[in-house]
Each structure stands twice: as C-alpha cells, then as structure tokens.
Amino acid sequence: MGRTQLATPRVGAANRAANGAAYAAIDFGTSNSAVALPAAEGASGAQTAHGAAVRLVELEPGFVTMPTAVFYRADTPPNEREAERHYGRAAVAAYVEGQDGRLMRSMKSILGSTLLEQSTDIGGGRSVRYHDVVVGYLRHLRGLAQAAANAPIERVVLGRPVFFVDDDAPRDAAAQAALERAARQAGFAEVHFQYEPIAAALDLESRATREQLVLVADIGGGTSDFSLVRIGPARRGRLDRRDDILASHGVHVAGTDFDRRVELASILPLAGYGALRPPDPKRPGEAAREVPSGIYFDLATWHLINTLYSPARLAELRTMKGWYADARHYQRLLAVLTRRLGHALAAAAEAAKIALAEAGHTRIDLGQWEPGLAAAFDETAAAGALDADFAQIVGAAHETVRQAGATAEAVDAIYFTGGSTGLAPLVERIAAGFSRAERVRGDRFSSVAQGLGWHARALFGAPAKAAAHPAG
User: Fold this and answer.
1) Which phi-psi region, left, alpha or beta, contains residue 106 (left: φ > 0; alpha: ψ -120 to 50)?
2) What is the C-alpha to C-alpha distance for residues 398 and 380, in angstroms, rounded to an integer?
3) Helix (H, G, I), strand (E, B) or coil at 45
4) Cα(47)–Cα(40) distance, rounded to whole angstroms?
5) N or C, which terminus of the chain has less Cβ within 10 Å?
C-alpha cells in the first residue's frame, strides 16, 4: 500500500457553501472511529425530527467506521522523512500478517498521561512521539472527510467521554487540551467538544415529546460505559449539555473480553487448555496437575499473540511435550504457533460469539487448524463462560443510576449503542433490571458520530439545500 496523500482540495467559496462541508464531526474512539459530515437539506442521511440530515463518511471501502489503529512500517527507506503508515483495517492486517513494524491501538487511552509526550521505537531506527501518533490519525481522518466533501474542513466537533481520567480533574482537563492541540496540528482551526453519551442520546432526543431520563449503555470492544442523561424538547437546542449528565460509570469489560472467554471455553481445550498432566512416576499418589495455562491466556489475548511466535517462546513450547497426557493436544498447540494460526482462532471465537447471539448455538469450524476439527458452542456454554462478565456490566448499569441518586423505576429508556450490544443475552440482562424503561437501539457502531454531526449542525449551522435533479 502506498503512502496516503492528504492534499487539501482547492475549491472556491461558492462550491464550499454548496457542499456545506466547512465542518465535520469526529468520533475518535478507543477501538473504532467514525466521521460525520452535514448533508445538504433534501439529501440522504440520518434524519432528525426537524428534517436535518448528517451523512457518515466511508472511511474504508464498504465501512463507515474504522479501527483506531496505525501501523508504522519498519522497512520505510531511510531517505524518507517519516515512516510509511497504514491505518484502520490495513494496519491490523499488516500486524496480523507479521510485517516488520509497530502497531498502535487505543491511542485515546493515553490522553492525559505523561506517556503522551514520550517517544516509542517503531523499528528501522525510527521513533515517534505518542502525541504525534494521535495527530497523524486525526490528520488521516480529516483527509478522508475532505475527499468525501470535496471541500477543505477547518471546523470540527470532537466527542469526549464524561471522564478521560476518573477522579482527577487536572488530568482530565489536560486530556481534552491534548486532544484539542492534536486536532489543531491535524489542520482544524476551530475545535469544539460534545460529551459522547449526550451525542448518543441526541438520536432519541430528536424524537422526544417530553422530558425523559435515559440510561445510555455504550458497550464496545474495551469498555462498558453507562451515563444517565436528561433529554427533552426544551433541551434540544442547548449547546452546553454538561448539566444534563447526571452520572457516568463503567467497567473495563466488553467485547474483547467476551471473545477471550469464548476461545478459552470452546476452542483452546482442544489444544490442552485445562487438561491434566500425566502421572509423575517419581511422585506416586500425588494429585494430577493442570498443564500450565499462561501460554493459553496469551494465545487468547489479541495483542499478545505475535509474542508467541518468537524463537524463545517456540523453544519453551518444545520443552513442554512431556506435560501432555494426550499427544494430540501438544501437536495442535505446536501447529498453532508454527503455522501462526493464533489470530485465525481469535477470529473464529469472535464469529462464534456473534453466531451465538443470532441463533443460540453454533458449530465452530476449525478445519484450517486440523481437517475435520470443530467445536460446539451453545447458550449453556456461553452462560458459564460469560456470566461473570455480564454480571459486572449489569452491576455497572445499576451503579450509574445509584450515583445519580435515582432509582431503576425512574429510568424512562435505555439507549443501547456499541458493537457488543449485538449480544441479545447481554441486552436482556441489562434491560431486566429496568422493567418500565423503553428499549431503544441506536446504530451499534455510529450513533455517537451521528449525534456529534447533529450537534455540529446546531453549532455551525445547516448547509445549503441540495440541488434538485429531474427524474430520469
């Protein structure tokens, strides 16, 4: 893949006004990001109750969301000023394929920390500041937005969590300041912020006919976040919505944890996870011991998988052969590491989780690992694997309401967003504790971006009307 070019389009003022693209809204997420632009009145897009529309930018072919990921290639020629970069799915693919370089993910999580100003090695004798990683990613999003709008974009609304940093107001303020500074370095001259739970709730508020208390449940890949917010027609036009967020709370348990649990429960036992060692003839009568589990935990942890392919880890595995009572377990584990199948197994676990949510049971085809090999996974197995995680998430929902000084009966609606809300059993568990609340599903991946886009329209003004096109 060649280097991304980010040249600013040259367009006149009249064309800029016609496109209405002088501003954008960016959901810079921990796991995924999305960008919204204003759509001209009469154009297609996400509609509010007032008929205004926003449109999401296609960030990658066929996708309006993109992993918040950057891969720096270590083989960039030394005469190049900066290392070549891949973004989004291309960045993840480069890492999974084992290309030489450095993958950066979850850059949002370091905002407000001293790590932001530190540099890290990216291979090839180069290093990069973490702050500059954020700048480069935002610049890439701005370039994609400008290409979609055919206009320069200098104004932006960025989403922000209620707390970048819990219980530390100075660091929280520093995190927003750092993100604003990065956005300006990426080319935005005017930067505004809106709270992510408010942005998510704007979809529901656009249809609200009375004041309501809404529990926003944003359950993504890394965290499950809840906010109790007040919405209503009288609040719809307010730009400062801080006082409408009554409480926010969350836990660092979400989709990637579910995938890990599924893999450990249903796939890795086929390679000896949880298996017992053969009896030790030197220790008669001693209770059987399990095969060490550390290698399996690393194999089920996405960002640690590549570490298992190093010569040192392979050498370690070769010394473990005598620990397995069933030789097939050892041979399968050895095959995963020597054939670099770790990420394929992780993908199979994720697919099984999704299939379970849709059908209640699934058969995990593992033929690429071993011909004819498969694993069954059903709701009973899922209950055992995911019950503790689900309980933590449900507990966080109720803690949010408690912190607001409210009761479950006072919640009028639960607004579900985030990729992991596709798991029906989890949604049912959460909703069961709020019996009188309406269940509302937003777009799992782009509700926040759309809401930020509507806030940007309110802040900056609507674009010009779309030109009419005669039929035929």
Assistant:
1) left
2) 25
3) coil
4) 11
5) C
User: In the prediction, which pLDDT does 4 show?
Assistant: 28
Q: Tell me how far the alpha carbon of residue 234 is from its chain's centroid.
A: 32
The CATH number fitting domain 208-444, selected from 3.30.420.340, 3.40.50.300, 3.30.1330.10, 3.30.420.40: 3.30.420.40
Encoded tokens for 259: 């995938």
Q: How many whole angstroms separate alpha carbon 231 and alpha carbon 453?
A: 17
Mean of the per-residue pLDDT values of the chain: 86
How does DSSP assign 253-279, residue by residue? Answer: -SHHHHHHHHIIIIIGGGGTTTPBPPP
Host H or E run for residue 213? strand 212-219
Predicted local distance difference test score (pLDDT) of residue 17: 39
Which tokens belong to 288? 């059987």
> Which two structure tokens, joined as six digits, stand for 181?
């500074």
pTM for this entry: 0.79
Between CA 119 and CA 105 the distance in angstroms is 15
Intervals of CATH 3.30.420.40 along the chain: 13-188, 208-444
For residues 41 and 463, give the distance between their C-alpha atoms in angstroms, rounded to a whole number. 7
Q: Is the dihedral of CA 331, 334, 335, 336 positive or negative?
A: positive
Query: Per-residue pLDDT tens for 220-255?
Result: 887 888 999 999 999 987 888 889 999 999 888 888
Query: Which tens digits make up the pLDDT trace of 124-140?
Result: 888 899 999 999 999 99
Encoded amino acid at 181, one letter:
R
